Prior knowledge:
- Keywords: Signal.
- This is Outer membrane protein beta-barrel domain-containing protein.
- Strands 1-2-3-4-5-6-7-8 form an eight-stranded antiparallel β-barrel.
- The N and C termini lie far apart (about 90 Å).
- The chain is mostly beta strands.
- Helices cover about 5% and strands about 60% of the residues.
- The chain is built from one helix and eight strands; from the N terminus they run αββββββββ.
Amino acid sequence: MKRLILILIFFPFLSQAQIQVSSGLSYVTEPSFGEDGAYTGSGIDISLRKHLTEKWKLTAYSGINKMRVTLAVQSRFDYSTKIYGYYYKDVVPVSFGAEYYIWNKKFIKPFVGLETGAYFTSYQTQIDPNYLSFAKNIPAGSSINWGFSPSLGIQFQENADRLGLFLKVKHTGIVYGNAGLSNIFSFSAGFTFKFGRKIMWKPPVIEVPTQAPYYETKDLY
């Protein structure tokens, strides 16, 4: 059943049109307010893009973002800082969307994108038992929530090349029920590889010039 669901999800990307595979590494941060620390970490992702036209692409995106918060307390005597634990947060997106390429004829191709889908979030903690009284609002458990991700990026790739590079800035908003909206920002870089025929591709037509009529001259005498 799971295999059938995956086939149905990715079937639109398995047609004869040109498909692009991208993968990259990212720096991820979730800003905080008040006394809570900010989650920071790194991520890795992979995405599929199906070319609808020269400027529009459908996208399917997944990956994993691993972040943490460092828990520290300051001594009142010598003002030294003691790290007594960490909060860990993993976010796995499974989202779909579209990208629009503003310029598509040049080597540098800026684009904007928007994705939406499910976000799997899990928490873990590592705290020194002697400092449990300092830990507040300890996150725990896991959940699946809806979210959205607008993005802005640049792709470096000639139209005739298979391999290219990209830079992208993305904001991800995840709705955690009563907890409200969580905002995650990521800055990623990676490579792209495209395969399949070109958009609006037609087989080349080779014109063979017609042979000039041949006349043989003969003497009649």
